[in-house]
Amino acid sequence: MSDGRPPRATQEQGQEPHAHARAAPTADTQPRLIATEGQKPFSDMKDTLHPALLEGVDAMGFKFMSPVQEKVFSELPSLSSDCLVQAKTGTGKTAAFLLPAIQNLLSGNMPRRGGVGILVICPTRELALQIAKECQDITSRLPQKLDCHTAFGGTQRASSLKRFLSGNPSILVATPGRLDDILGEEEVRERFEGLKTLVLDEADRMLDAGFAPAIHKILKRLPPKSNGWQGMCFSATLPERVNDVVKCVLFPGYTSLSTIDPNEAPTVARVPQFSVLLNSVKQTFPALLAVLQKEYESNPDDFKVVVFGTTANGVGMLYDLCKLALPQFRTFELHSRMSQNSRTRTTGEFKEAPRGILIASDVVGRGMDFPNVSLVVQLGLPMDTEQYVHRVGRTARAGRDGRAVIILFSNESFFINTNPTLPIKPYPTDIVAELPKYQALVDKSFPRVDEVAKAKAYQAFLGYNKTYLKKLKLQPKELVQLANDYAYAMGCPEPPMIEKKVVGKMGLKGVPGLRIGTRERD
Ligand SMILES: Nc1ncnc2c1ncn2[C@@H]1O[C@H](COP(=O)(O)OP(=O)(O)OP(=O)(O)O)[C@@H](O)[C@H]1O
């Protein structure tokens, strides 16, 4: 007769007890409780969760459940129910989907050896690695090891496929591109016959125009929903449009849970958010340096910053500038133009770094958990309101405080006016008055930034802002002038060359102000 506790997974013959475990957090690494007073301790889940899972989260320093974790456990009809879950950034959604899904597997739903029981799909490679790590930590105390594999681009396809097929990937965390690719192999598709749970993390992003086609191709190659696998969709932002598309993953009548009051701002309340509105794009670079210096001076002992740029090449150039202009800070760069090894290495370094400045593109705009980030700066227009919210969500995680500043030039200032629900106030110091001091630093630094990096940033600036022509209220000719001002601000004596075919692709053929030709060297 069962004592009501979930069955202890039996020890497979020859299976070593799971030796490695996450080192017990030291005082300064102990995640501060997300829990506020009155949040339930995980020990209350002793009749719901396998004892080894409770030992796992305890070893991770999770003593109390966060609101979204408690809501999932207390309001889901069963741990295998389909659900659409919204909770603010940094509040523990990863464990909120992993724990019920893993408990399901342990409750007699393990797939056959080599089969995938839980599939988590997320938008970026770094997030896939982060989720897999959290999964390994949560299951670290299980007597029978549960392997969590990853599948994402930028890694050797053959070797990772070999590892997948020869391994026992009870859990797979994947990005859509690589998953869609390997599902083209029959022997890979067979591994999903015992699928029990499909999770879309950052679900609104996974179901938007960018990813939806790949997601639909993937769903066609997985067992049909009628096989009964559980669908779970999680995000900090779930705009209305998501309700129309989640039915491809969730059964009708799925449970919808949210820890966010519809009348409150979607960003974490503890994060004061400011804007710096510039008269000209030429003020962008001294304004960034001024904000970083001001923020450092007001909080020198807690200065771990993420600066978001709008394009990968723009971020690469910004990194080069900040390295030269701010040698007193350790600076990091992360964007899609880097090799995967560099991206993975930098992600790990910045996660561990007690302080420093990460200059990043949106490759880390969602989901990424960099402990103790004290400030998020956004330079230029976010792709949309949701992206703004997720970027701000890189700070104030796990119950910590944080601050956010967005720097926009005049044409971009519509973003503030068209997002009244965002609690963004004017920056408390008059940054524009401080610019001359920082302009001198910019003028001294840019001559040492590679001209090709500037040319790539110029081209990326044109391409990115071309997509917002209407919102920026610009004619193509004015856009080119704006980009030429941006190039001037980078210290380019004249606008960088841009190839004829690139101009054609951008739809800027014949627009005056461009210098058509081939760059000296790439
Ligand atoms: N119950 C808990 N107690 C203490 N810390 C927790 C708890 N749950 C999660 N954390 C920690 O809080 C941080 C944020 O967790 P997580 O990344 O899952 O948040 P999220 O809600 O998924 O954020 P995002 O919306 O940005 O993806 C992580 O460092 C995680 O280890």
From TrEMBL:
<dbReference type="InterPro" id="IPR027417">
    <property type="entry name" value="P-loop_NTPase"/>
</dbReference>
<dbReference type="InterPro" id="IPR000629">
    <property type="entry name" value="RNA-helicase_DEAD-box_CS"/>
</dbReference>
<comment type="similarity">
    <text>Belongs to the DEAD box helicase family.</text>
</comment>
<dbReference type="GO" id="GO:0003724">
    <property type="term" value="F:RNA helicase activity"/>
</dbReference>
<protein>
    <recommendedName>
        <fullName>ATP-dependent RNA helicase</fullName>
        <ecNumber>3.6.4.13</ecNumber>
    </recommendedName>
</protein>
<dbReference type="GO" id="GO:0016787">
    <property type="term" value="F:hydrolase activity"/>
</dbReference>
<feature type="region of interest" description="Disordered">
    <location>
        <begin position="1"/>
        <end position="32"/>
    </location>
</feature>
<feature type="domain" description="Helicase C-terminal">
    <location>
        <begin position="284"/>
        <end position="443"/>
    </location>
</feature>
<dbReference type="Pfam" id="PF00270">
    <property type="entry name" value="DEAD"/>
</dbReference>
<keyword id="KW-0547">Nucleotide-binding</keyword>
<keyword id="KW-0378">Hydrolase</keyword>
<dbReference type="Pfam" id="PF00271">
    <property type="entry name" value="Helicase_C"/>
</dbReference>
<keyword id="KW-0347">Helicase</keyword>
<dbReference type="InterPro" id="IPR014001">
    <property type="entry name" value="Helicase_ATP-bd"/>
</dbReference>
<keyword id="KW-0067">ATP-binding</keyword>
<dbReference type="GO" id="GO:0005524">
    <property type="term" value="F:ATP binding"/>
</dbReference>
<feature type="domain" description="Helicase ATP-binding">
    <location>
        <begin position="74"/>
        <end position="256"/>
    </location>
</feature>
<keyword id="KW-0694">RNA-binding</keyword>
<dbReference type="GO" id="GO:0003723">
    <property type="term" value="F:RNA binding"/>
</dbReference>
<dbReference type="InterPro" id="IPR001650">
    <property type="entry name" value="Helicase_C-like"/>
</dbReference>
<comment type="function">
    <text>RNA helicase.</text>
</comment>
<dbReference type="InterPro" id="IPR011545">
    <property type="entry name" value="DEAD/DEAH_box_helicase_dom"/>
</dbReference>
